[in-house]
């Protein structure tokens, strides 16, 4: 952000209508104001710090509403923000669903929300009352499609990484797999073998609970 900030903030020349000649037209980038960052539980640190850094770099103030599910990370974020940032410009708010419902009724210049589609609709609805722009990163379905030309070994390895990265707690984790009939038998065999191997490696105590 720091290395690119000057180029990002540089005014951009745009075409000028003929009847306004000899005037010049350009887009000037300015801070929006106060951003509300509503973070999800599955990436409690990165999901809060990354948009916060962007807000700071672009000259905005911010309020971070951390996830009540990741309480320890929430405490760490609050501690760091209090220690290193201006408390008049940056705040951390903790709390559950009722706190979230209340805070989205307030007026902000931007809302950044990460979470489910259902909750995203509620955020967008509340923001619409104040014409507040939103950046919504919402959940959905993420299928994997395996056709008969696929390299089965390579495909299985990639699907396992996609499914189990961050313990599977990722919005783009593979939800289900559609496999061509011609390769379904070989795929199931390869998938089962690699899955069992990976899970055994994850349980260093040799537990059979996987």
Provide an overview of this structure.
The protein has 210 residues and is α/β, with parallel strands linked by helices. The protein has two domains: 5-138, Aldehyde Dehydrogenase, Chain A, domain 1 (3-Layer(aba) Sandwich), CATH 3.40.605; 144-202, no CATH class. It is 40% helix and 18% strand. The protein is built from seven helices and nine strands; from the N terminus they run H-E-E-E-H-E-H-E-H-E-H-E-E-H-E-H. The protein has a five-stranded parallel beta sheet with strand order 5-4-3-6-7, sandwiched between helices. The protein has a two-stranded antiparallel sheet with strand order 1-2. Helix 6 packs across helix 7. 19% of the residues are buried. Residues 21-198 form the Aldehyde dehydrogenase domain. It holds the Pfam family Aldedh. Belongs to the aldehyde dehydrogenase family.
What's a quick, concise take on this entry?
This protein has helices at residues 5-9, 46-57, 71-84, 97-103, 117-128, 152-164, 181-202, and strands spanning 12-14, 25-27, 34-38, 61-65, 90-93, 110-115, 134-138, 144-146, 177-179. It has 210 residues and is of the alpha/beta class.
Termini separation: 42 Å
Which spans have pLDDT < 50 for at least 5 consecutive residues?
A: none
* Secondary-structure class: alpha/beta
Count the beta strands.
9
Helix and strand sequence: HEEEHEHEHEHEEHEH
**Largest sheet, spatial ordering of strands:** 5-4-3-6-7
Q: Radius of gyration, Cα only, in angstroms?
A: 23 Å
| CATH C-level category of the largest domain | Alpha Beta
Portion in strands: 15-25%
Q: What count of helical segments does DSSP give? A: 7
CATH topology of the largest domain: Aldehyde Dehydrogenase, Chain A, domain 1
CATH architecture of the largest domain: 3-Layer(aba) Sandwich
